[in-house]
Amino acid sequence: MKALVTGATGFVGTNLVRRLIEQGNSARCLVRRSSKTAPLKRMGVELAEGNVKNYESVLEAVRGMDHVYHCAAVVGMGIAPRSEYYAVNAEGTKNVVRACEAAGVKRLVHISTQSVTFDFTEKRNADENEPFPLRYKDPYSESKAWGEKAVTEAGKTGNLQTVAIRPTLVWGPGDKLVLPVMAKLASRNQLFLINKGQVEMSTSHVENVCECMLLAAQRENVSGEAFLVTDDERITAREFAEKMADAAGFEKPKKSIPYGLAFAYGTLVEKFHALPWVNTPPVMSRYAVALSGLDLSFNCEKARRMLGYRPVVSISEGMRRLAHWLEEIGGIESLLRS
Q1: What is the three-class DSSP state of 334?
Q2: Phi and psi dihedrals of 264, rounded to 5?
Q3: If we measure between CA atoms, which residue out of 29, 111, 20, 21 comes closest to residue 62?
Q4: Architecture of the domain made up of 2-175+203-233+298-312
Q5: Which InterPro entries does UniProt cross-reference here (predicted)?
Q6: Which end of the chain is more exposed for a tag (fewer CB within 10 A), N or C?
């Protein structure tokens, strides 16, 4: 099977490429000129230089491919201008859809997010029937929603078969977003819980996300659908933070503040980092506070039923692998320096 992966140098993308190679597939990766491609070169994959914002480069990359896995995205908050979220997550995804249709690709699997239904309110054991908000409060969620809609609509109306996968909080070896922020805050004695960390959350180990994506590519009778993928275990914010601290070797959070105060703090941090002379991304935001301070739990029953999904890595096993990976790269300090 010939497969193209966009965003292949990212967290999910790199792990997915490895899984594809292990399964004996031929992989091509769409990479930007500035991307760090050494890990991909070591895997022996074909590299195609381009950018999802450039339709012609995407079209050239997808030619001859059976499957396309679209992982490229701007993630996190405050790491790029607001317009960049829409240029990559929305318009870039539309370019991928158009290119796949034009090149006769059989199947497109797109990485979406549970945030497409995120409206800064609590959700308990939610599923894919949650409605999209009428108005979004952050560019990441809105731009990803626009991208997902383009994917699912194409899968319902045309010859291209499509599936959108919605992970929750993605974690595991190779994570350079969630783990470094937690470790950095802990080193400054600023890692705190919100409302004592009692809220329930859903997590998605990167291996489980890749497993669900690979299964989605195989179910040719399923198209135009979106699927939540989680570790399928109940866990609170406190439990997850403490397990991460144990695995990574940083201080467990000892402070707890009320949600309202944390949200106000996130607002101030966002405003500070929006100043023209501040060129570093914020380590805190209203979006991050809401994700960790509200009950946000999801179920993956639809993926179980229609894709045959079952988690391949438990949370406890995932923590063990995380600790082993950190030991291999020289500890959490090495990750913070990179």
Answers
A1: helix
A2: -65, -40
A3: 29
A4: 3-Layer(aba) Sandwich (3.40)
A5: 3Beta_OHSteriod_DH/Estase (IPR002225), NAD(P)-bd_dom_sf (IPR036291), NAD(P)-dependent_oxidoreduct (IPR051783)
A6: C
